[in-house]
Write a structure and sequence with these properties.
alpha+beta; Arc Repressor Mutant, subunit A; Jelly Rolls; about 20% strand
Amino acid sequence: MKSIPIRSIPTSSIEPVYSEAFVIRDVRTLMKDKDMVQDLHRHDFFFIMALQKAKGIHSIDFTDYRIGNRSVIFMRPGQVHQHTLKAGSTGYLVEFKADFYPSTNFAQQLVRRAGAASFYQPAAASFARLFSCLHQVTEEYGGRQEKYLDVIKANLDIFFIELIRNNPKTPTDRKAVYQMEQLDKFNALLEKHVATEKQASFYANEMNLTLFQLNTITHATVGKTCSAMITDYIMLEARRYLLATTNQVSQIAYHLGYDDVSYFIRFFKKHSGYSPEAFRNKFR
């Protein structure tokens, strides 16, 4: 069973301790006047691309986003993506591990709320503020003066707050924030246990909630039952492996916890309209 290619932040000899946790790069320098074309893969870090001038397409978990001027891409660890970015694009690429950013509740909420959307196209004034933050981060990252990491994190705070202001769907009241926190916990548990646990009651118990409470949370945040979310996650993982690897359908079925391959094929076709092989042939 082959895994989906996972990329990590490259290690630098300049400062290996922090280079494995955070990096910011100039997009034009990175591209070297060539198109940037990347096949399906996933990251074990947060990935942000803020593009001042750009043209291309970015696919995140099989949703396509057309990239233009003043585009911001936000990806969470584990998501599968591919993209084509045309030569001449300008902006910044930011990559950081979860443990780089402060573990305070405030910081986690900022990252969670900013990451509620994968694609932003702010108005000119808002994008200018976002871009100014990243320019300051670049200066601090290159200069490495005293407390530069603190300055970087402070500017990231401002950057995330500005992003949140550009998404009217992000929660603001205490109840909505709590529900998003619980939804994140549910998603993390799905990622860890879905191959062996497919009953909604298991996840409710793990979260010390009743099934009614968990369903109330998922309805309020994504408009679905937790059972529907379990199905959606299984289907997402199946599509990821079908399109990003050459694994046989039987291997993918076993990986997702289905000993009966025929049942898995029927399950996949019911929820996608295609058999796994037909889906792979059509969309790969």
